[in-house]
Amino acid sequence: MNESYPIVIPKELITTFLLKGFVVTPEVLTADEILKYSDAIDTAVDRRRTGDPRGLSEKNRYEQSFIQCMRLWETEPRVVDLSLHSGLAGIAAQLLGVERVTLWQDQALYKEAGGQETTPHQDQPFWPISDSPMVSAWIPFDEIHSGNGAMAYVPGSHKAGRLKVVDITHSTAPYDILKDPALDGAALETIPISPGSVVWHHGMTVHGASANTSDHTRRAFTIVFLDGDARRTKPWPSFPLDRANVAVGDLVTGAGLPQAWPPTEQKPLAPDNIGRALGPQ
Fold first, then answer.
1. pTM higher than 0.85, yes or no?
2. What's the chain's average pLDDT?
3. Is-contact 248 235, C-beta < 8 A?
4. Cα→Cα distances 78→7, 38, 115, 257, 263, Å
5. Long-range contacts from 175-180, C-beta under 8 angstroms, 24+ separation
6. How confident is the model at residue 48 (pLDDT cuts 50, 70, 90)?
7. Does residue 114 come out as left (phi exceeding 0), alpha (psi in the -120 to 50 range) or beta?
8. What is the C-alpha separation between 200 and 222, in angstroms, rounded?
9. pLDDT value for 51
């Protein structure tokens, strides 16, 4: 593996990630970085929400879980340096044990005051990609605890592989993945976390988030990194893959799917075809 990482994490953290499917890397972003990036993402989220005056009670169950703004790096230039942060991308490479890492997506997940819990699920089965390793960096901009929307993970659940897909949109009754026999009754472990630290989880790790019973919006930003050798395995519709003309069997690369590690000399250009302002895609 490449040893020139901007941030080298202890081997003990890699061992924890491999064992539990999630790990916290403490204080990897500075206070100045948190201030800079949270300001950029707050502005981008406000811009994406223009024209949607609905209150929380007027939204559907999924929208009550969080305000979701995907691929902000494509529409907000100030977000690019976070989504392709070489320190974070290097940590992703270390956790996954791979030489190259692709940026799969970023997204703001702002859980409003009174927002509902996020239904437990796995990430990777949502997408028609191989089982090549994937990891999400969950970056808080506020002090996070169980009362305002902390993330929670089932330790070791990534070892179960792909389980039944959970409809977290609640357009149909979501599968209760916590009762899946493969998990053998294991429970979620809640992770309080402070700004500057990052919690990482494997693409197959079962996870959710608590409701936000506080009076303030819980602000978090996620970056999903994918093994650079991952390939598309299924033909079903996938906006990022279809947009980049990635056929079944092809490497996951192209417009909107830039290399994150090793860093490239030039920043990637945003694709011409920009997706939805709000919600999943």
1. yes
2. 97
3. yes
4. 22, 10, 27, 18, 17
5. 177/120, 177/121, 177/122, 177/206, 178/120, 178/154, 178/206
6. very high
7. left
8. 9
9. 87
Where would I find the beta strands (DSSP E) of the chain? 22-25, 67-70, 101-111, 118-121, 134-140, 151-153, 189-191, 198-202, 207-209, 218-227, 259-261
- State how far Cα 277 lies from the chain centre: 17
Residue 77 neighbours by CB under 8 Å, 6+ apart: none
Q: What is the largest CA-CA distance in the chain?
A: 51
**Both tokens of residue 195?**
């700004």
What digits encode the pLDDT tens for the residues 6-17?
A: 999 999 999 999
The pLDDT of 127-144, averaged and rounded, is 97
Give the ranges where 126-261 is alpha helix by DSSP (H). Answer: 239-243
Region 90-97 average pLDDT: 98
Distance CA 166, CA 168 (A): 6
Name the token pair of 82.
């976070």
- Which token pair is 119? 């239904």
Rounded Cα distance between 225 and 213, Å, is 30
CB 271 within 8 A of CB 243: yes
Residue type, 67: I
